[in-house]
Amino acid sequence: MAPEAAPEPPHVVDECRGVLFVYSDGSVVRRAQPGFSTPVRDDGSVEWKDATYDAARGLGLRLYRPRRDHLAGGARLPVFFYYHGGGFCIGSRAWPNCQNYCLRLAADLGALVVAPDYRLAPEHRLPAALDDGAAALLWVASAADPWVAESADLARVFVSGDSAGGTIAHHLAVRFGSAAVRGYVQLMPFFGGTERTRSEAECPDDAFLNRDLNDRYWRLSLPEGATADHPVANPFGAGAPPLEAVDFAPTLVVVGGRDILHDRAVDYAARLRAMGKPVEVRDFEGQQHGFFTIDPWSDASAQLMRVIKRFVDSDGRFD
């Protein structure tokens, strides 16, 4: 009798940006650092620290604030949340691109910046990240941390997010309305749908976020068997909560002309405006997905920072 063949060793069936590897046996391997090298530009004008907002799940966030000698008259600071992107599958508050962007946000906005981590897929499929986003918001509202208690103006809370973080911002707007949040900034929000938009259909394969990676993120992050029309991905899909009754705080939607997500975000804003919601779009012509974290010091990133600062300084009014 011939000996049984040795079982085939597990092999990679899904991979995301050289950081996340899903194997044929269902196991998942993650690398702690991103697959790119970016130096952190910290000039010392902003101080930062880490805190835990959900000890049971081991979830933390990073707080940033201008150093006291950079503050005018000891005034309390607006609170500006930044939920990182990564298709709900990768990303971290500790990655250098996130660190650089948050350092600039704190310095330029004169704000207490809050950068939470959240559970990632496929180990924790949606809506886990949305629940964690809400938990971080409530933790800050409790003023349990000394920096929040000392520095934060909790009547001026703004919620922003990049890509998947922008999707979190949408769902927090639906969950909390305008009662706890003064305004939302959705930075190239990661929405989905089974019917391709023009910007999705025409997206080149060499784009920073292309169709293959876009679809892979949804396949790995949505509940098993769900399509991109699931309400978590598509705010207007079957089963999505009706948005007409939601009391939206002023919402700024930022899009890039070369971004695969451009048309879906523009359509999202147009539909909300048709419902009478206070939503405006800022379209950065020629910019790719995530341009403001890829190079936070570019001319386009500086222009975006000025737009966000006017929004925050005016307590959610559009210029």
From TrEMBL:
Protein name: Alpha/beta hydrolase fold-3 domain-containing protein
Species: Urochloa decumbens
Domain Alpha/beta hydrolase fold-3 positions: 81-292
Database matches in InterPro entries: AB_hydrolase_3, AB_hydrolase_fold, Carboxylest/Gibb_receptor, Lipase_GDXG_put_SER_AS
Active site positions: S163
